């Protein structure tokens, strides 16, 4: 099933057809940040004016139907740590202290929203329409090799009783197979983690390698029993005018990310 671009005035974001709760993968468009952060920066450590970041979240909340004070922001350090959160953690990172280090969040408490950040890394959203649980994961190449996508789904099973066969997943824009040029350490890590099944998603170019992080994260999800997966075709490097790319900007950038909100009721 496809991932679709949505527009509300100047605001642009992506949604996945397979996920029925409020969610988005953000772009650079539609916020109030200025200068090199223009315009929709949702990162809290990028040098932006705090009021601009809050306004950007409010713009997204108005479009998607969530309250920014009910969001929980991840505290990412390229780990495979998945943290269960709820009403007690709402506002963390935005209106209150940051969470402990974690690169994925899960919840089953209605009204709670989860937010993760990317700027070439892979954003992953999960929704179980049976239990109502949701998850959000940030997968850099280390997190990808550590199967953080699969570990997020497993945490939803452990904590909320989700059946992986029921979970709907979406993999958003990242640095694509076309542009993720690496040394041998990255493909070596993927093969160590996933064996021969990773090799179709790795190609060589002289002494360099190209790695398809979207498909390796999808592989991890399938191995965990998640088979309903929407995958974006967008590359943050090829479309650096539209998405924040750490590689293109050499770090002088804002952050996009992914948000998903747990809703009342079940399907």
Q: What can you tell me about this protein's structure?
A:
There is one protein chain. With 267 residues, this protein is an alpha+beta fold. It has one domain (3-261): CNF1/YfiH-like putative cysteine hydrolases (4-Layer Sandwich). The protein has helices at residues 50-64, 141-145, 148-160, 185-194, 213-223, 246-249; strands spanning 3-8, 11-16, 23-26, 71-73, 82-84, 104-107, 113-118, 122-127, 134-139, 168-171, 181-182, 202-205, 208-211, 228-231, 256-261. The strands form 3 sheets. A 6-stranded mixed sheet has the order 1-2-3-15-7-4, covered by helices on one side. The protein has a 6-stranded mixed sheet with strand order 5-6-9-8-10-14. Strands 11-13-12 form a 3-stranded antiparallel sheet. A hairpin with a 6-residue loop joins strand 2 and strand 3 (23-26).
């Amino acid at each position: 099933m496809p991932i679709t671009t949505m527009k509300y005035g100047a605001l642009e974001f992506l949604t996945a057809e397979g996920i029925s709760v409020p969610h988005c993968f953000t772009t650079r468009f539609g916020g109030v940040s200025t200068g090199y952060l223009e315009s929709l920066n949702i990162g809290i450590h990028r040098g932006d004016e705090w009021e601009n970041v809050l306004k950007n979240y409010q713009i997204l909340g108005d479009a998607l139907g969530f309250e920014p004070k009910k969001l929980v922001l991840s505290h990412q350090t390229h780990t495979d740590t998945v943290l269960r959160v709820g009403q007690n953690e709402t506002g963390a990172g935005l209106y209150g202290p940051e969470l402990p280090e974690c690169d994925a969040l899960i919840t089953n408490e209605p009204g709670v929203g989860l937010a993760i950040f990317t700027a070439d890394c892979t954003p992953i959203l999960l929704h179980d329409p049976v239990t109502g649980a949701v998850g959000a994961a940030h997968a850099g190449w280390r997190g990808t090799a550590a199967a953080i996508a699969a570990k997020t789904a497993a945490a939803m099973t452990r904590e909320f009783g989700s059946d992986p066969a029921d979970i709907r997943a979406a993999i958003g824009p990242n640095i694509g197979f076309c542009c993720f040029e690496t040394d041998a350490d990255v493909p070596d890590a993927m093969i160590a983690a996933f064996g021969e099944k990773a090799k179709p998603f790795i190609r060589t170019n002289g002494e360099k390698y190209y790695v398809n992080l979207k498909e390796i994260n999808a592989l991890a999800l399938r191995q965990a029993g998640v088979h309903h997966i929407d995958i974006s075709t967008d590359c943050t490097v090829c479309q650096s005018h539209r998405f924040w790319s750490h590689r293109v900007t050499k770090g002088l950038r804002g952050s996009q990310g992914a948000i998903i909100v747990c809703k009342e009721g079940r399907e």
